[in-house]
Design brief:
The complex is a heterodimer.
Chain A (H helix, E strand, L loop, with lengths): L3 E4 L2 E4 L5 E7 L5 E7 L5 E8 L5 E2 L10 E5 L2 E6 L8 E8 L6 E3 L3 E5 L1
Parallel strand pairs in A: 2-11
Antiparallel strand pairs in A: 1-3, 3-8, 4-5, 4-9, 5-6, 7-8, 9-10, 9-11
Chain B lengths: L3 E3 L3 E5 L4 E3 L1 E3 L6 E7 L6 E6 L5 E3 L5 E5 L4 E6 L8 E9 L2 E4 L3 E6 L1
Parallel strand pairs in B: 2-12
Antiparallel strand pairs in B: 1-4, 3-9, 5-6, 5-10, 7-8, 8-9, 10-11, 10-12
The chains are: A mainly beta, B mainly beta.
């Protein structure tokens, strides 16, 4: 298993500002995934972050809005830029375990935009 | 695109009752199937998974799920629930690298 730590665990932000969420894993992993869980909805994949290359974004998500860094094999950041109330959500970092497809999740970062 | 449907949004039942949560997916190719659980205040955890072989898989805490390929289904079951099974349950399907989640089912078990 993998232990994933996210910071901040929650935050309240003003419209138009940006927030960077950090994800730290206790082991080296190739792929890190960023998900969003909007209120009352399921998890939606935002992007996949590989070390040393540009993140791969899913349909409906763009780099300008959600820039991602992946400086090494244990760390990644997701920035939510120019926030609006619609960005209020839980943002989750996850990594793949040794069994392909099994994901481990962090506790999430609950973001509220006023 | 892959879609995952969970039939029930909220299920309420009493302790010792049996539980079955439905899950259907749209992709017709080879898939890996998962059920995740999120207990109140905790992060998502893997309950069980199916990759191949016996279509009836057993997971933690007495849960099991049956893969029926012809029905594109992967329903979760537990013969006798406990109060501690109160949680949100997510079905997930993986094809290629992407894991797609259902909308989730909130299960409330009354003591």
């Amino acid at each position: 298993s993998a232990v994933i730590s996210q910071k901040p665990s929650r935050d309240i932000c003003q419209r138009g500002t940006s927030l960077t969420i950090q994800c730290q894993v206790d082991s080296q992993v190739t792929m890190m995934f960023w998900y969003r869980q909007q209120p009352g909805q399921s998890l939606t994949l935002i992007a996949t972050a590989n070390q040393g290359s540009e993140a791969t974004y899913e349909s409906g998500f763009v780099i300008d809005k959600f820039p991602i860094s992946r400086p090494n094999l244990t760390f990644s950041t997701l920035t939510v830029s120019n926030m609006s109330p619609e960005d209020s959500s839980i943002y989750l970092c996850s990594v793949e375990g040794t069994s392909a497809g099994e994901l481990f999740f962090g506790e999430g970062s609950r973001l509220t935009v006023l | 695109a892959q879609s995952v449907s969970q039939h029930n949004h909220h299920v309420i039942l009493s302790e010792a009752a049996s539980l079955e949560l439905g899950c259907n997916y749209s992709y017709g190719g080879t898939v890996n199937l998962f059920w995740y659980v999120q207990y109140p205040g905790q992060h998502l955890q893997l309950l069980l998974k199916y990759f191949s072989g016996d279509p009836l898989v057993k997971g933690i805490k007495g849960f099991e799920a049956e893969f029926i390929k012809s029905k594109f289904s992967f329903n979760l079951r537990k013969p006798s629930v406990q109060w501690s099974d109160t949680a949100e349950y997510f079905c997930a399907v993986k094809n290629d690298y992407k894991l797609s989640f259902g909308a989730g089912t909130t299960v409330t078990v009354r003591a």
